[in-house]
Amino acid sequence: MDLLTLLGSILPRDGVLTGTDMAGYVQDWWGRQQGQALCIALPRDTAEVSAIVSACAAAGHGVIPQGGNTGLTGAASPASTAGDRLPVIVSLARMRRIRDIDVANFTISVDAGCILADVHAAAEAHQRLFPVSLGAEGSCQIGGIVSTNAGGTNVLRYGSTRENVLGLEVVLPDGTVWNGMKGLRKDNTGYDLRQLFIGAEGTLGIVTGAVLKLHPLSRVHATAWLALDSPASALAVLNRLRATCGERLTTFELLNAAQLAAVVACQPKLRVPVEAPWHLLVELADMTEAGSLEALLFDTVGEALSGGELLDAIPATSDSQRAAYWALRHGTAEANRSSGVVLSADISVPVASVPAFLENASNAVRNVFARATTMVVSHMGDGNIHFGTHFDTADWQAMRDPAATTLAVRRIVNDCADALGGSFSAEHGIGRKLTEELAKRADPAELLLMRRIKAAIDPAGIMNPGCLLS
Ligand SMILES: Cc1cc2nc3c(=O)[nH]c(=O)nc-3n(C[C@H](O)[C@H](O)[C@H](O)COP(=O)(O)OP(=O)(O)OC[C@H]3O[C@@H](n4cnc5c(N)ncnc54)[C@H](O)[C@@H]3O)c2cc1C
């Protein structure tokens, strides 16, 4: 029996998509990588995932796990070049069950296909918080954030996905199901296998379930939009806020004027609250009453204004104003997809080196590509910078060798990160976009260990071939 027929016998009739029905699945979020797949398989539970993976393994076809397909490194869709055996994309879109909420244990157990925003809502219904939050939360899935170890806007206070996963259920490359769905904060029974699958980008197995760590739900927020003249001033404000507000500081996002102009061009209803070269969105969250939290933020911001660190400060005085500030922040990815060509790098450096990185990288890119604009949106509180090099469409079309330009920009920016002890992939992963960078920049012993782990768990190399390790 051929693989398609076999998959058709495992899944219901509408559980296998082929031909033009695959359109939304075989292209990456940017629309830059368009590949081919044998089919899309849509399992409804872990047993079906196991049967699909076993069938693919027996037939020697690759398996690409796919969540919401919002990843930014081309990891969840096939490469543009097709091999002789096309991969099967396994989409978890039909596995959306909240399995259990243990309110006393502060845990939630979910199917990996649950949408992140639905998990937020389920936790909030019980006065609990699942803190991983990002612009794609209305469409990305738990399996996707686990497999990319997504960060987002709350890492400063709560850590990234890795810090918020207690247990996993995974279908291994031979179809075996590993049940590690434990909700324990302490469990020293040997190697911590769960960590292997977090950030593995679907190269070691398919995550089918997760036990997530919950936190007390913050009852009040205080939010402000701050205007500044430089990233160095932003660092001073960060230090000041951390000193006075401690754990209550959840969000510290830096954007430059060019990035905000692109957001407003993409969503003309939005308005940047004040003109300035640099902007911050800051937010505190707490359990106390709103008045004292706002007072704490206003007092601290007032001191920063008097100290000359800020040009202006506009607190959010209503829920709608707060939402408008967040819309500007969350509009950046969509703006960068639709505004000319933005070559985006996902850098992290030690927090105090953020200003130096921004200055060095902007100068280095400008020295080679004088007409390019720098677009910056940064989770500055945790040292993560999304550094975009923007070319307008006409300049890009006139470019003799766009692929060479893409690589040149990548190398220039990543070299600046390396020089400051940074990383060329802070929260988006390696995917298919950065395999050469990993091979070039990773410590050789680290690469060797990664290859050995891959070979031990997936000896036939069927899980997400070509992703992470080329
Ligand atoms: C608007 C926007 C804003 C974003 N903001 C942020 C941000 O602030 N911080 C951040 O870290 N990222 C951000 N991202 C990128 C981020 O990586 C994804 O949004 C999210 O983590 C991916 O989830 P997904 O379900 O879409 O996964 P996909 O894109 O479908 O997959 C991503 C990777 O995970 C693998 N995978 C997916 N599901 C499974 C599974 N069940 N088992 C095994 N492997 C699986 C895939 O094979 C692939 O390697 C943003 C993306 C967008 C479009």
UniProtKB/TrEMBL annotation:
InterPro entries registered for this protein in UniProt: FAD-bd_oxidored_4_C, FAD-bd_PCMH, FAD-bd_PCMH-like_sf, FAD-bd_PCMH_sub1, FAD-bd_PCMH_sub2, FAD-linked_Oxase-like_C, FAD-oxidored/transferase_4, Oxid_FAD_bind_N
Domain FAD-binding PCMH-type: 33-217
Coiled coil ranges: none
Keyword Flavoprotein: yes
Keyword Flavoprotein: yes
Gene3D superfamilies xrefs: 3.30.465.10, 3.30.70.2190, 3.30.70.2740, Uridine Diphospho-n-acetylenolpyruvylglucosamine Reductase, domain 2 (3.30.43.10), Vanillyl-alcohol Oxidase, Chain A, domain 4 (1.10.45.10)
Keywords assigned: FAD, Flavoprotein
Pfam families reported for this sequence: FAD-oxidase_C (PF02913), FAD_binding_4 (PF01565)
Family as reported in the entry's similarity comment: Belongs to the FAD-binding oxidoreductase/transferase type 4 family.
Protein name, as recorded: FAD/FMN-containing dehydrogenase
Origin species: Aquamicrobium terrae
